[in-house]
Amino acid sequence: MSLGIIGSNLWHATSKNLLKTNRINKDKSVDVVVIGGGYTGVSCALRLAEKGSSVLLLEAEHIGDGGSGRNVGLVNSGLWMEPDKVEKMLGKVAGTKLNSMLARGPEFVFTNIEKYKIDCELTQTGTLHCAHSNAGLENLKERLRQYQSRDLKVDLLSQAETEHKLGTPIYKGALHLRDAGTIQPLAYLRGLACAAVSAGASIHQRTPVTAIERINETWEIKTSEHIIKTEAVILATNAYHKSLLVSAAPIYTPLHYFQTATKPLEESLLKKIIPEQQGCWDTAMIMSSLRRDQAGRLILGAVGSLDLPSGHIHYNWAQRRLNKLYPCLNDIEFEHAWHGRIAYSNDHLPHIVEFGPNAISIFGYSGRGIAPGTVFGSAAAEYILSGDLAFLPITPVKSYTEKFTRIKGAFYEFGATAFHGTTSIF
Ligand SMILES: Cc1cc2nc3c(=O)[nH]c(=O)nc-3n(C[C@H](O)[C@H](O)[C@H](O)COP(=O)(O)OP(=O)(O)OC[C@H]3O[C@@H](n4cnc5c(N)ncnc54)[C@H](O)[C@@H]3O)c2cc1C
To answer: Which residue, 125, 167, 268, 373, could crosslink 40 as a Cys pair with Cβ 3.0–4.6 Å?
Structure first.
């Protein structure tokens, strides 16, 4: 195992659209403060700035340090959960609203990319949800029924058709979600951040917020050196929340997901291996994913953390799996390996907590946050400007809690490690 490459995030190595920002040098007063520089926070800041608000975004590390700079880059519509389940859990009216706002999520992302001319390796050949077993195929058939009843562009591919798209025979079939696509996730985020700055937003990196206080009907947002007074605050820190004790801090079960990337493959291999460049993931309980980047690297991901002592088990499994999927790669080594933390919620739904006047916290995308984060961020901006709840995809609650999140997170990691320690490649 080449330990040296752990922590080498491909997206950081290949992202363009660098964003340079200054430190805050004095106390300030603005209309809105956004905390967290991922899709949610940046999309919110962009919308607010375009609508003429003075908005200041504070990011503890750098734009994309959280899930938005670490993910697989699959731009899918909806949530992980089937749309029927969403409607069952939220009720017909609220569920239909959330489903239909998120069904248009990929279109919203692709429009942003076009509008702001973001160079982010966009592919629009769809994504493939692949059946790892007969039970997985049955689940895909049910999803097909639900998606088609909502007019999503989707086809069920046979085993042979799936093999043709992927260049490996191991899947029983796949759902081809034709509205979806892939991006270089960090490049997309940085492009959005550049657009936000052009629209007038102030972004400050390496500036953790340490306190949020309500004083004399104004919010005071504190960093280690300065205080920013504001009318409204959006907390968009999700699974990477840090340094800040606040009642509306995200509550979630941490689920780790790692990715490995090869060097760019030769042209002859690229003609066989995912030639149309769809992003893929599967129906297995310990899920895995597969995609290419623009340079022709193959990127394989699965549940698990590379940081823990069990990291080498996940890494070795990825190597075995790649060999099984594509023997023609001849034991190719990985050049990048990194992981990220997913904010998994009990009900697999995102949550909005309203923790005071004009103050909301948004979190819990449960592994599908590229399009949803962009949609929720923009919707939060509209809500803050208008006070109209209709803009929000879900109704805010006053408080939210879950129990045993750390234990559940450890259980998922243990399960993934036990599974990756076996000889199975699913
Ligand atoms: C490995 C992985 C793979 C995934 N794959 C996909 C995928 O293929 N498709 C998909 O749709 N979704 C995917 N997701 C989910 C998606 O990436 C996330 O849901 C999304 O990025 C969340 O965005 P966010 O803006 O809410 O939070 P984040 O991107 O996590 O941003 C939160 C930011 O807040 C900052 N912050 C924290 N505390 C403070 C503070 N006190 N002060 C200031 N700033 C602070 C953090 O530094 C961080 O940058 C994946 C996630 C992971 C981890």
So the answer is: 373
Nearest to 152 by CA among 185, 184, 105: 105
Which tokens is 407 given? 């234990």
Tell me the per-residue pLDDT of 72-106, one tens digit each, with 9 for 90 and over.
Answer: 999 999 999 999 999 999 999 999 999 999 999 99
* Crossing angle (nearest 10°) for helices 92-103 and 105-115: 30
Atom of ligand 1 nearest to the CA of 64: 49
Residue with CA nearest ligand 1 atom 9? 74
Distance CA 424, CA 426 (A): 6
**Residue carrying the six token digits 């002859």:** 268
Q: What single-letter amino acid sits at 22? A: N
Q: How far is the CA of 410 from the CAs of 127, 135, 286, 400, 407, in angstroms?
A: 30, 27, 14, 21, 5
Alpha helix segments (H runs only) across 116-156: 134-148
Q: Beta-carbon neighbour count of residue 114 at 10 Å?
A: 10
Q: Measured in angstroms, how far is the CA atom of residue 353 from the centroid of ligand 1?
A: 17
Specify the 3-state DSSP secondary structure of 345: coil
CA 94 to chain centre: 23
